[in-house]
Amino acid sequence: MSVFVNITDKPLDSAEVLNYVRHPHAGAIVYFGGTTRNAFEGKEVVSLAYEAHPRLAIKTLETIANEAKARFPSVHKIAIVHRTGVVPVATESVMIALSSTHRKEGWLCGEWVLEKVKERAEIWKIEKYADGGSVYKENEASNVLART
Predict the structure, then answer these.
(1) Which GO annotations describe the biological process of this protein (predicted)?
(2) How far apart are CA 135 and CA 125, in angstroms?
(3) CB 76 within 8 A of CB 25
């Protein structure tokens, strides 16, 4: 199997994701870990809370990973893992890893996958601030559906 995707409420394990994508033909492993930062637009962030429609999100992540493999032929394996629930500051909420014969195509593929996950996956977040406020943020696909 060359694609692994998962939605979990448990802390993410970068070693597990990186070990999954290792491949003997790969000259590069590309890894992205998206973490909760402590500020957004001047407000102190205390956490992000993610919600997902797991069955749909898994299917969307599998589609994105398979599209990436077709678009970037030197990519051997891809893993996309997203966390749900509360994700504290400096903690990963999403991990994308892949192995590629060449690093340049690997970097391009990783960026492409991240943007597609942000645009299409049925995953939403609530950003919580130190002042007690919060903002619900939808992905691009949700925003398009809400406007139609």
Answers:
(1) Mo-molybdopterin cofactor biosynthetic process
(2) 8
(3) yes
